[in-house]
Specification:
The complex is a heterodimer of chains A (about 350) and B (about 70). With about 350 residues, chain A is α+β, with helices and mostly antiparallel strands. Chain A folds into two domains: about 220 residues, no CATH class; about 100 residues, Cupredoxins -  blue copper proteins (Immunoglobulin-like, Sandwich), CATH 2.60.40.420. In chain A, about 55% of the residues lie in helices and about 15% in strands. Chain A is built from ten helices and ten strands. In chain A, helix 6 runs antiparallel to helix 7. Chain B has about 70 residues and is α+β, with helices and mostly antiparallel strands. Chain B has a single domain, classed as 2-Layer Sandwich (Alpha-Beta Plaits). Chain B is built from two helices and four strands; from the N terminus they run E-H-E-E-H-E. A four-stranded antiparallel beta sheet of chain B has the order 2-3-1-4, with helices on one face. The radius of gyration of chain B is 11 Å and the shape is globular. The chains are: A alpha+beta (about 350), B alpha+beta (about 70).
Chain lengths: ~350, ~70
């Protein structure tokens, strides 16, 4: 997953943490602080807040790890993952619509946490021990607000425990400054956030939704992705160049090559003949990005390429038309034009 | 035991719904509270000898929500 999307997730946490998570979890945190102050008037306010936030960060990063593992076991093919990404994107749009109060219908997108878990967390907040804030931070994982749920679904969709932990870590880290701020402000702080952040948060969610849906479309093997529309509009010569290309057949086999870089695949369009076996060589030189994870969704081909080397893939195209290939995230795309 | 359904407004997230239920159930005389966030309504079962509709409405107001 490219660094920019982790940044988007961090920013979403930064802007929405104040609004959606603060309402329930902030109230519990405040009651912990007030209990502490009753016991010892000299207690530094920072200690319970930091303890709470550390607990929250640890448990959610751990959760992200398991969500990534869950995503791995759930996935079968690039097409399945593609549809999953599209559904995630639609869910994010629903959450965004709810944040903006567009229509009561969007409320049905939000999953309400079960009462008994919320009561568990509330009872813990009445404790006077110093350890209580940390336990409370851990238990916030049971009462996620709507945007946290959306981020958890993205973590599942990543299908990778390391990405999953990174996603949850970035999000919760983003929510941390807002909670720290709230620890020092009066109750009126929550009202200030309510005024400005729904629009910012909904915009960030909208961007993540489009990103997710676009990746999903690429993963299902379709050629109708934003990258391709952009290419067709700005660099149409890349697409038309390949249409007139001659097909090279040696000893009854079509040999072709794709050079893989950190930014994608070259060439992006290759013409091939149908029903003739293909030997495709993928050449990588010092590649670290997700382009290493090469897929041809329609043929259920998924291959992890080495950082440097030549990898051979053999297949025989059966259907005329566009056969899309892409990285496992659906970001870097290209296609084989299969002709008669 | 009486059971009433109240239509609420001002619930901007599902955590609000959970918060309402927990706070109402802490109220003396309230046996059960079940708030549906999507429909924005609360179903409350209470003992009319111990508490009344006004106490319930006040509690909800104090949390920052309105009863329609």
């Amino acid at each position: 997953m490219p660094n920019f999307s982790l940044l988007t997730i961090f920013l979403t946490g930064l802007t929405t943490g104040g609004l959606t998570c603060l309402v329930l979890q902030g109230g519990l945190l405040a009651s912990v602080i007030s209990q502490q102050n009753k016991q010892n008037a000299n207690t530094n306010r920072l200690i319970p807040i930091t303890s709470f936030l550390v607990g929250k960060l640890i448990i959610h990063t751990l959760l992200g790890f398991f969500l990534g593992v869950l995503g791995q076991t759930l996935t079968l093919s690039p097409i399945t993952r593609g549809w999953f990404q599209i559904v995630i994107g639609i869910y994010l749009l629903g959450i965004a619509g709810n944040l903006l109060n567009l229509h009561p219908l969007f409320r049905y997108f939000v999953i309400t946490p079960p009462k008994f878990l919320a009561r568990l967390v509330k009872n813990e907040s009445k404790s006077q021990s110093l350890f209580a804030p940390f336990i409370l931070g851990l238990s916030t994982v049971f009462i996620p607000c709507a945007v946290t749920q959306a981020t958890e679904i993205i973590a599942i969709g990543s299908g990778n425990p390391l990405y999953g932990s990174a996603i949850m870590f970035s999000f919760i880290l983003g929510t941390t400054p807002t909670f720290l701020l709230f620890g020092f402000l009066l109750n009126s702080g929550a009202k200030v956030f309510q005024k400005y952040f729904p629009q910012i948060a909904a915009t960030a969610l909208f961007c993540m939704a489009l990103y997710s849906i676009n990746n999903g479309i690429g993963l299902t093997g379709s050629v109708y992705t934003f990258q391709n529309f952009y290419q067709a509009a700005v660099h149409p010569e890349v697409l038309s160049a390949a249409i007139n290309k001659e097909v090279v057949i040696k000893n009854g086999i079509q040999e072709t090559q794709i050079v893989v870089t950190n930014n994608g695949y070259t060439p992006q369009v290759i013409t091939l003949k149908k029903d003739v076996p293909v030997r495709l060589t993928l050449t990588t030189i010092d590649v670290q990005s997700c382009s290493r994870s090469f897929t041809i969704p329609a043929l259920n081909i998924q291959k992890l390429l080495p950082e440097t080397g030549d990898t051979l893939i053999e297949f025989t195209p059966k259907d005329i038309g566009a056969l899309a290939f892409s990285c496992s995230m659906g970001m870097y795309t290209g296609r084989f034009n299969i002709i008669n | 035991m009486e059971t009433i359904i109240l239509k609420l407004s001002g619930l901007h997230c599902s955590s609000c719904a959970v918060n309402i239920d927990l706070t109402l159930e802490d109220l003396q005389g309230v046996k059960n509270s079940s708030t549906n966030y999507a429909k924005s309504e609360t179903k409350i079962t209470f003992d009319s000898k111990i508490t009344n509709l006004d106490s319930i409405k006040t509690t909800i107001h104090n949390l920052g929500y309105q009863v329609d």
